[in-house]
Design a protein that fits this description.
Helices cover 64% and strands 7% of the residues. By secondary structure, it is mostly helical. The chain has one domain. The two termini are 30 Å apart. The mean pLDDT is 80.
């Protein structure tokens, strides 16, 4: 029977009488944005085993990058849709700003409620 570490793609190296996990802290040059950091915090607090498995297998950084990129795309889609129904920016500036801020807040609220994690 394979351990959870092996099921997630981890490997071991035999050193003397012991098997030690092959761990690496391979990172990317991509800086994790707001949504990737929020996902990391969520995993640490609520999904500790998933966070540990991603970290041990070296897939945490790429997972966080993917989350960040997809969340940015979701936000862009919300904003594009909001621009279609927004009041005229030239004549109703304050209403336009309020409308766009509301669209961004709605997109972030959906993300924070876990909508992203269920629809990817």
């Amino acid at each position: 029977m394979k351990s959870l570490f092996e099921q997630k793609g981890g490997t071991y190296t035999k050193v003397g009488d012991y098997y030690l996990p092959n761990l690496s802290a391979a990172g990317d040059n991509y800086k994790i944005g707001k949504y990737g950091r929020a996902r990391r915090n969520y995993l640490k607090k609520h999904r500790e085993s998933e966070y540990t498995a991603l970290m041990i297998t070296g897939k945490l950084h790429s997972h966080l990058r993917d989350v960040d990129v997809k969340a940015q795309k979701i936000l862009e889609c919300f904003i594009k849709d909001a621009e279609k129904s927004a009041p005229d920016k030239a004549t109703h500036q304050m209403e336009w700003v309020g409308h766009m801020n509301n669209a961004k807040a709605c997109a972030e609220a959906l993300y924070c409620k876990g909508w992203y994690s269920y629809h990817t």
